[in-house]
Design goal:
Belongs to the BolA/IbaG family. It holds the Pfam family BolA. By secondary structure, this protein is of the alpha+beta class. The chain contains six helices and three strands, in the order ααααββααβ. The protein has a three-stranded mixed sheet with strand order 1-2-3. Strand 1 and strand 2 form a beta hairpin.
Amino acid sequence: MAPSRALLLVTHLRPSPCLLPAARRTISSCAQTHRSPLAQALFPGPTRKVRTFPALSSRREYATAAPEPPDYLNEAELHIFNKIKAELQPVNLEVQDISGGCGSMYALQIESERFNGLSVIKQHKLVNEVLKEEIKGWHGVQLRTKAV
């Protein structure tokens, strides 16, 4: 398959001489770093090494504090939020009534250290055990759990 005319036009472009030298150096160094075929066509020359920084920490500093309930939760959402917070000590917790306000279906997103070493099914069983009485009256639940 023959390359399109637009691609042929783009590969024959050269940097504009009206670019400021500093801007031209920046564009050139970026293009040389990535070394795509287009970058090689536009800026031939040696590649630059990119400096990488080590990861500071895989654990977030703010993740150790218990989440506070947002002020927009209704009474039923707040009850669920507080019950999960008390039992599972989550790092991140979101509770949302997705049934249109009637309280028959909820979306729960929970990140907790209590989930460490547990499969997803066991994590969900743990949440179901905590909310056993509430789930009896629900139509459904969307549950997302994550170990911290």
